[in-house]
Design a protein that fits this description.
About 20% of the residues lie in helices and about 35% in strands. The protein is of the alpha+beta class and about 90 residues long. The chain has a single domain, classed as Uncharacterised protein PF10387, DUF2442 (NE0471 N-terminal domain-like, 2-Layer Sandwich). The protein has a four-stranded mixed sheet, covered by helices on one side. A three-stranded antiparallel sheet has the order 4-5-6. Strand 2 and strand 3 form a beta hairpin. It is globular and about 30 Å long. It starts with a strand and ends with a strand.
């Protein structure tokens, strides 16, 4: 599954695939994200395999998000769920 959009609100982070599947992860499940300020949460970076918040040193994998939501199985493949920026 290819991720094409990532966004946050006051409570969760969301990722959507090119075919419209959306997974979310509640910040309360991760102490660093739960305790972070809105500004810190908004400062995330996307990589091929996940999301990184440099100011709080936290990472979430796309596969982990989609697996936790029951939308995919875990895999040994690096490209099970991924983000690829279009230049």
């Amino acid at each position: 599954m290819r991720i094409n959009k990532v966004w946050i609100d006051d409570h969760s982070v969301y990722a959507a695939t090119t075919d419209g599947v959306v997974a979310s992860y509640d910040f309360s499940r991760w102490p660093r994200l739960r305790d972070a300020s809105p500004e810190q949460r908004a400062q995330f970076e996307l990589s091929y395999s996940g999301i990184h918040w440099p100011t709080i040193d936290e990472d979430l994998s796309f596969e982990g998000m989609f697996h936790a939501a029951g939308l995919c199985d875990t895999s040994e493949r690096e490209d099970n769920v991924y983000y690829l920026a279009v230049s």
